[in-house]
Write a structure and sequence with these properties.
single chain; alpha/beta; three-stranded parallel beta sheet; globular
Amino acid sequence: MSSSILWPGGAKAAVSLAYAGADLRTIDRSRKATLFTTPTQVLADPAAWRQFAEDGFEIGNACLLGVTDDGRVPNWTLRMIEQELFMAQQFFSDFFEGSPVQTFLYPGKQPWCAGGNYRHVVDEQYTFAVSQDLGINVEPFDVSYLAKATALPDLEEGWAIVFPELGAIMDLESYWVATVAEVAEYVRVKQTEP
């Protein structure tokens, strides 16, 4: 099956490189990527984070990352999740001078709290979200709940959001490589075209 979305430059598929909680010194600066982080991590090295943002890297929110291994926060209410996401969004907007963070990284496979599934809370505050489900994103794309990959598969179509192993070198010549938000916005626009 061939994809109906034509990727820029005649690429056969799209790839977004993404890092969560990574040591900034280990990130390949030659390719723009999405860096998922928390306000605490940003404040640990503010100058470096500002430089990455100025260099065109996307900053994504991972404020719940590390809360639990599977994504459940059983002692949190929906209101607490909503407030945490709001406060993180306010921090990023202030820190990065008005640039809203569009992309959220779920902390695990189970977006559950004491009040139930919190996916709708994320959907209200973020345009795009990356789940912890592994796979390749194919049409119809759901940009509010995207799968991630841990390595670059033999990708013939679709979109892989790759969280590369430290030092992994990938041949990306035949792919359109862009941040999560850039590809997701492109997909969103293409899906709404007549």
